[in-house]
From TrEMBL, chain A:
Superkingdom classification of source: Bacteria
NADH:quinone oxidoreductase/Mrp antiporter transmembrane domain mapped to chain residues: 126-402
Boundaries of every NADH-Ubiquinone oxidoreductase (complex I) chain 5 N-terminal domain copy: 65-110
Topology of this chain in the membrane: Multi-pass membrane protein
Name of the protein: Monovalent cation/H+ antiporter subunit A
Record has Chloroplast as a keyword: no
Source species: Pseudomonas xionganensis
Domain MrpA C-terminal/MbhD: 611-674
Occurrences of domain Na+/H+ antiporter MnhB subunit-related protein (ranges): 788-911
UniProtKB/TrEMBL annotation, chain B:
Spans through the membrane: 26-49, 70-91
Membrane topology: Multi-pass membrane protein
Localisation: Cell membrane
UniProt-listed PANTHER family: ANTIPORTER SUBUNIT MNHC2-RELATED (PTHR34583:SF2)
UniProt-listed InterPro entries: CPA3_antiporter_subunitC, NUOK/Mnh_C1-like
Tagged with keyword Transmembrane helix: yes
Family membership noted in the UniProt record: Belongs to the CPA3 antiporters (TC 2.A.63) subunit C family.
Keywords assigned: Cell membrane, Membrane, Transmembrane, Transmembrane helix
GO cellular component: plasma membrane
Protein name per UniProt: Na+/H+ antiporter subunit C
Entry annotated with the keyword Translocase: no
Length: 930, 108
């Protein structure tokens, strides 16, 4: 519970600074600090079991079928990182209070910061790897928001986008890697994954999984060649850099290296990939840092270099090297955070970050200068500071490996070279900024010390650097021991944290680095000139070009497929479905199944032939639309007959009545549309469509034949068996509609009503050209409403209504029901419109079709809800037999009420469509039909 | 019988698909109607072709499969709603764009 709360607190706390924003920056910062402070207290309460070497687990099921659980884990490693995240987070909150100006939205800043903090805590405290990945991606997203905090600046937006693209892309690779590991280990829970390290390393997919996971780690931790996003992320406000790029975001990568160390490390693959990447990054970062004139740029490349160092240590694959790596994570976080903060102070007070302009600051801000110099010395690895200790351990470990055979000396040599550069750029940070003459052309002159409390976070961190550097055994040793043993997943090797180990090779390397660094710095001017002569490679430009290239390719691809031609889309879709079905039918050994074929009688054979023929005639005459329409109605009628023939009376009735409504609708539409279709398809397109249609027809015919000649199992026996005892009706089709599958039907009548409304909206305000004569130039008949039709239709109306009532009532037991009765009523009413005109009918039939459709859905829905009152699930039906005088025994089912809803919806929707379309044909714009 | 039915359905589908690929709205709507006939018959046929045994309890010894029938019944009604919607969309297109070409503009 406590673990979940530690993660949840920052997320919950997001709201506080937003609320407190109006009360000023101090209140805002205080509000932001509440959640991390509480989190820190909770974390400290868990101290005892963690330092006893226990693993605190808490587990909640989420999607156990997929292996996703809300399971959390706190061990030494997680404790160390949570401490860094919360502790440095609090210092950054204090620092940002003074860094942000009054006009900047502090509430939003702190909200983003807390969001990021919560995500980071989630990463380090997750037991489930998929859960961890979710938080991992959340750190990418929230860091995007933080880096682009000054979103009016283009470099901030571009830098943020680059960081998101690189780390987010790496996250995808990581997801794939984790899924593989989960498959191999049989679980996504860390405890099990860490325990099955041997199985993972022995698996044939291990190299692939390792590479994918390392891609995620290297992009996040800015390892070469993915390091380029980090310097551009320096466009963020400095508190963000101090937080993200010292202790948290970039450390998430090395955290995962440590976390998965027992599961993945210990193979040749691991060694070559991790150590060589680390060594390259170490050298590239250290070298590049020297040539940066931007204060934060120097720190950014130095961060890359130190991350490379940590990665190299993990790659060296001795247990002691892993301890050194964990130690350096702690040390780097403290000195780098304080250096970023100091750089921010200098930027804040001078208005510049260019080291060629910022000189001689010692005179203007001695206090800050002292703090920065101590921190920079720690970065250089000067004795009595924490950086020295881990660097000594690092040098020792580079000497203790023999991984490259006769070339093993390359690693310590590279490490020493990086040490030389490291001393040189640290020296530059100290000498160039605080001494080296007078400031040049500063925006803010003269600079002065920052507000008192802005220096407090720096002081705290620098104090820690000194404390750890002087008395390591009494300060950092227990934390390091517990974190390192959690990393290794076993007992710790022997090591000593003392400052003096006697005269040995690592000390010599340190001395070489120190002297070499001073020499390099002294002769920096020729080096700078040489560097200026190199071809400049702007990562931002390259990245933007790559992005533009991808966008252009995507656009080209889109335009190829989506050129605005419906015909092409349809052809492509049909082709695709053709291919899919063909592939699916492929494995069939024979087309004909074992089932014997039924006999063909003459009438059926003739009707089938007519059906096919009229479909073909529809196509042949499709340019003469009226003829085609007539043939289409023949097809519809024959389909109804086919339903009759094959034991589906309900379908036949429905098909017949729908056919009529559809034909009226199409006739109405044809009044406005051109009477003929121009012959405009090219021969080639005609051929293409012919082949597609032929192919599709053939495939469907084969499919139907293959299915019909094979036996099948139906689930309908249940419905047939339970129709009378369970549903109280003998017409199984109707009982299925209103009872067994009532929920489906409810959805379907809702769709019907929505379609009616949609059509009503589409017709609103539509003005169409109304031809005065038909295609051959004949004027329309002057007799608008023929007398015989008008008279007959009025006579027919009560009769038709009676029939629809009959069909409705018998529906539960015999073919009929709400759908069919509704359609019959609709047809009877439409006939009145056709025979007598819209106005005449409207004035006599005061029905609101919107309401009718709505009431229908409501009746059906409420009938379903009513079963709740009696304690049954939604849409449970009941029925009973009643004796009514004169009529006799009658059976009533609550499903009938549901069917009434169906009936009303069908009438409402159908007439809503037709009456409104018919209204358009009125010469004078009649009033809307509701 | 099965072979005849399959062939008829094939022709019905082919006719529908061919009309669906035309360039004007009205033939497309007609194609859609033909195709929905074919699809309805196809779904219906998945319950196999039975003669003289409607799914009304007590009327015959065996019954045709009522489940595809129930599905197809609603499909017919929904198919009507869809046809009406597409048709009105075509009319709206004609009113707004002054053409009944499916791409909303006369071919150049």
């Amino acid at each position: 519970m406590a673990l979940a709360l530690i993660i949840a607190l920052p997320f919950l706390g997001v709201i506080l600074p937003l609320l407190a924003e109006r009360l000023g920056r101090s209140a805002c910062a205080t509000a932001a600090a509440v959640a991390p402070l509480l989190g820190l207290v909770l974390l400290m309460q868990q101290r005892a079991p963690v330092f006893a070497g226990e693993v605190v687990l808490s587990k909640y099921s989420w999607l156990p079928e997929l292996g996703i659980n809300l399971s959390l884990r706190l061990d030494g490693l997680g404790f160390l990182f949570a401490l860094l995240i919360l502790g440095i987070g609090l210092l950054v909150i204090l620092y940002a209070r003074y860094y942000l100006s009054k006009s900047e939205p502090a509430g939003r800043f702190y909200a983003f910061l807390l969001l990021f903090m919560g995500a980071m805590l989630g990463v380090v405290l997750s037991e489930n790897l998929l859960l961890m990945l979710m938080f991992w991606e959340l750190t990418s997203l929230s860091s995007f928001l933080l880096i682009s905090f000054w979103n009016s600046r283009s470099d901030a937006r571009k830098g943020a986008r680059m960081a998101l693209a690189v780390t987010g892309g790496g996250g995808l690779a990581l997801l794939a890697g984790i899924l593989l590991i989960g498959q191999i280990a049989g679980s996504f829970e860390l405890s099990q994954v860490l325990a099955s390290g041997d199985a993972i390393r022995a698996h044939e997919l291990y190299p692939l999984a390792l590479i994918l996971v390392l891609l995620g780690i290297f992009t996040k931790s800015a390892q070469f060649p993915f390091h380029f996003w980090l310097p551009h992320a320096m466009a963020a406000p400095t508190p963000v850099s101090a937080y993200l790029h010292s202790a948290t975001m970039v450390k998430a990568g090395v955290f995962l290296l440590a976390r998965l160390y027992p599961a993945l490390a210990g193979s040749e693959w691991w060694f070559y990939l991790v150590s060589i990447t680390g060594l390259t990054t170490l050298l590239v970062g250290a070298g590049m840092a020297l040539f940066q004139h931007d204060l934060k740029g120097l720190l950014a490349y130095s961060t890359i270099s130190h991350l490379g160092l940590i990665t190299l240590l993990f790659g060296l694959d001795t247990r002691l090297a892993a301890v050194a790596a964990v130690f350096h994570i702690i040390n780097h976080a403290t000195f780098k955070a304080s250096l970023f903060m100091a750089a921010g102070i200098i930027d804040h007070e001078t208005g510049s970050r260019d080291m060629r302009r910022i000189n001689g600051m010692w005179k203007y801000m001695p206090h800050t200068a002292l703090l920065a110099m101590v921190a920079a010395s720690a970065m250089a690895g000067v004795p009595l500071l924490n950086g020295f200790l881990s660097k000594e351990m690092f040098f020792t470990e580079t000497l203790n490996q023999h991984l490259l055979g006769s070339f093993s000396w390359v690693i310590p040599a590279g490490a020493t070279l990086a040490g030389v550069f490291s001393v040189a750029y640290s020296l530059r940070f100290i000498h160039d900024v605080f001494f080296n003459g007078e400031p040049v052309n500063l925006p803010h002159y003269p600079p002065h010390e920052p507000p008192r409390y802005m220096k407090v976070p720096v002081e705290v961190l620098v104090f820690l650097c000194l404390l750890v550097g002087i008395v390591p055994a009494y300060t950092v040793a227990p934390l390091l021991a517990v974190a390192a043993s959690a990393t290794l997943g076993g007992p710790l090797p022997e090591y000593s944290l003392s400052i003096w180990h006697g005269f040995n090779l690592p000390l010599l390397m340190s001395v070489i680095a120190l002297i070499g660094g001073i020499l390099v710095y002294t002769f920096r001017q020729p080096l700078f000139r040489w560097y200026a002569g190199l071809p400049q490679l702007d990562a931002k430009l390259v990245f933007e070009n790559a992005v533009q290239g991808v966008v252009a390719a995507a656009r080209w691809c889109t335009q190829l497929l989506e050129n605005g031609s419906l015909q092409r889309y349809l052809a492509l879709m049909l082709l695709a479905s053709l291919a899919v079905v063909t592939v699916a039918l492929g494995p069939l050994s024979s087309l004909q199944g074992p089932q014997a074929l039924g006999p063909v009688d003459v009438v059926t054979g003739l009707s089938m032939g007519m059906l096919a023929l009229s479909a073909l005639i529809t196509v042949v005459f499709h340019r003469r639309r009226l003829v085609a329409l007539l043939m289409l109605s023949v097809v519809g009628l024959l389909v109804a007959l086919a339903f009759v023939r094959f034991s589906a009376p309900d379908l036949a009735l429905t098909q017949l009545s729908v056919e009529m409504v559809t034909m009226v609708l199409l006739m109405l539409a044809l009044f406005f549309l051109p009477p003929t279709t121009p012959g405009e398809s090219s021969s080639l397109r005609g051929l293409r469509d012919f082949i597609l249609a032929g192919g599709f027809g053939t495939l469907v015919a084969l499919l139907v034949y293959a299915v019909l000649t094979r036996p099948y199992e139906t689930i309908a026996d249940y419905f047939i068996a339970n129709s009378v005892p369970g549903g109280g009706g003998t017409n199984v089709v109707n009982v299925i509609l209103v009872d067994f599958r009532g929920f489906d039907t409810l959805g379907e009548i809702s769709v019907l009503a929505i379609a009616g409304m949609g059509i009503y909206a589409l017709l609103g305000g539509l003005q169409l050209f109304q031809p005065k004569q038909d295609a051959d130039g004949h004027a329309w008949a002057r007799d608008r409403h023929p007398l015989i039709l008008a008279t007959l239709s009025r006579l027919l109306l009560p009769l038709a209504l009676l029939i629809s009532a009959f069909i409705f009532l018998r529906g539960h037991n015999l073919p009929g029901g709400g759908f069919i009765a509704g359609l019959i009523t609709s047809i009877a009413l439409i006939l009145q419109y056709v025979a007598n005109g819209v106005q005449w009918t409207r004035s006599r039939l005061a029905l609101n079709y919107h309401q009718l459709a709505g009431v229908g859905v409501l009746v059906a829905g409420v009938t379903g809800l009513a079963s709740w009152i009696f304690g049954y699930p939604f849409l449970t039906t009941t029925f009973g037999h009643f004796h009514i005088p004169l009529v006799g025994e009658i059976e009533l089912a609550s499903a009938m009420l549901f069917d009434l809803g169906v009936y009303l919806t069908v009438i409402g929707a159908t007439l809503l469509i037709l009456a409104n379309l018919g209204k358009l044909t009125q010469d004078d714009p009649a009033k809307e039909v509701h | 019988m099965e072979a005849l039915f399959a062939a008829t359905l094939g022709i019905l589908t082919a006719s529908g698909v061919y009309l669906l690929l035309r360039a004007r709205t009205f033939p497309v709507v007609m194609g859609l109607i033909l195709l929905s006939y074919a699809v309805n018959l196809f779904l219906f046929a998945m319950g196999r072709l039975k003669t003289g045994m409607p799914a009304v309890i007590g009327r015959s010894a065996e019954y045709a499969d009522p489940l595809p029938q129930a599905l197809v019944l609603t499909a017919i009604v929904i198919g009507f709603a869809m046809t009406a919607f597409i048709l009105v969309l075509a009319l709206r297109g004609l009113g707004e764009l002054k053409t009944d070409h499916v791409d909303g503009k006369e071919p150049r």
